[in-house]
Specification:
elongated, DNA-binding, about 50% helix, about 110 residues, homodimer, Arc Repressor Mutant, subunit A, 3 strands, alpha+beta
DNA sequence: CGATATACTATGCCACGCGAGGTATATCGT
DNA sequence: ACGATATACCTCGCGTGGCATAGTATATCG
């Protein structure tokens, strides 16, 4: 269940979480929870990295006297999601290689 | 192409490479090359970790005056491959979440 | 009135991928 | 004859990155 396999999907999940509409840290974690658990100390560095990479932009909004940061997917971020769909083909080839039954034994 | 996504598949790929018959480091790298590139400094630590975890056993064989280490998949290792097939279902759910078109915009 | 939910941040550990470099033999091209 | 390439193993050390821990601050719920 730890599945470090999922670790390769962390970034892309965050991008997916803000695909439909802008969102903020706490909500992103809740939204993706059905698919994977991500702690805050994992998410926020990812958000900062994605921002630096130009995949999203940040906008601070006052909320209950505190700042809430809304993240918005950029065109580059959207492209990243498309690239991911392409890369997935290679991933599936690896998957099929792995589950392919040995030709003889077992 | 760097695709840290593939990093989650490194271990499992190595196990798959010795699934049909025992193999050794250099050959494993060549065998999985069509699917992913793995450097030696990545593979050998993985092999040691998999051995410590009991997923494979090692046997040294003299070859051209040098030792060649053959790696053999254990039952535990075979189980790991089966577990992987199960975990993959969760991975596919994440994949579908990511590529699912937003309900409204875009 | 303490616990829980909301919401963001900083610090520091440890796992790990991988580049770089080391050793040694065999083979192949020129 | 000799350098390059392939085979085959190994170690060291850097940088990235996931995540536990802990801190700050408000609102709500039992």
């Amino acid at each position: 269940m730890d599945t470090q396999l999922k670790r390769g999907l962390l970034d892309i999940c965050v991008l997916a979480a803000i695909k439909t509409e802008d969102s903020y840290g706490y909500k992103i974690i809740k939204d993706i929870k059905p698919y994977m658990t991500m702690s805050e100390s994992t998410l926020y560095p990812i958000l900062r990295r994605l921002e630096e990479a130009g995949h999203l932009t940040v906008r601070s909004v006052e909320h209950n006297g505190r700042l809430r940061k809304y993240y918005h997917l950029t065109d580059a971020g959207r492209q990243k999601l498309k690239d991911f769909a392409e890369e997935w083909k290679e991933i599936m080839e690896i998957y099929e290689y792995v589950i392919r039954e040995g030709n003889d034994n077992e």
